[in-house]
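Morning run. Coffee first, then this:
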Amino acid sequence: WPRALIVVALSIVAVNVFDLTSEGVAVTGDIPTGLFTVGVPQDVWGEVGALIAGALSIIFVGYSETLAGGRAMASKHGDRLDTDQELVAEGFACGAAGLVGGFVTDGSLSKTSVADAAGQKSQMASLINAVFVLLTILFLASLFKNLPAAVLGAVVIDAMVGLIDFRPMVRYFRVSRADWLCYMAAGLGILFFSIIQGIVIGVVLSLLLLIAHASRPALRRMGKQPESDTYLDAARHESAIGEPGVLVVRLDGPLFFADANVFHDGVNQLISVADAPVHAVVLDMEAVSHTDTDGADTLTSMASEMKARGIWFGIARAEEAILDRWDRAGAIEAIGRNHVFGSVQEAAQEAGARAGVD
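And here it is:
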């Protein structure tokens, strides 16, 4: 049974029969009717500045609600969600709405819930809905003049009740305190401020946590396992033994502005706490997937510092794209092209042979 439609119809009848508007019941009021016109908006360039803030708010809300609804339904029905395709489609829909003077469009959690509860399986249902909306605009809009605003709100709330699920909150708390913090901050922001402010709080907090995490790179002192001739994390593998006087350090993560100084200080810390004097340092850069000018400048500074301290310095296993960026920034020249190796074994062997010479 279409309970929402029945309630809407009965509430309109009640307003008309009992004259509830005179008792202070708020209703939707007059609804514009008629066909839309197609055309490009005129004289909008002077309003661009005023529109930017609203546009950014719409992007935040639309992006969040579209993907939230899509992911919920994809998870429920075992489908795959292509987020890029969803956003491309949303962009075209918003552009088309602008040409006819319509509202900006995005995915709707309430409409998604109603459609799913009604058994919608394909886009055909949306096309049928569009036809009925058009017919309503042309012929039936006046029927909704006395629809109580409270009933309209109740219909939306009823549609959203099925999407309320507290299990993700418990799961986030168990898996990651950072995820749980973002989840709660966004939710409380929506409840106590508004949807836009809540989403902005969640996004900003997520970015701050991401930068904080990236600013603490994982540095691992590597050691050679004699049986396999491979280099492993010395802290996790007791059989991994370091070469005498050679410090092999692996960086797990990007080398960019947020963690460059921490990386530099971390390598110096490992040198200072080494069991024996360090005469050579090899950086295993296999896990470095991103770098920038600050990262390259840090390597340049380290190369000069190591040379002044009489410590041989080299890098190994860096990707070609990473090496090209460091080369353009001058870091490879500072390190020495003959100090760049394709494997840690080669770098460590060369470092052991030439430690204290270069």
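The longest strand covers residues 218-225. Good start to the day.
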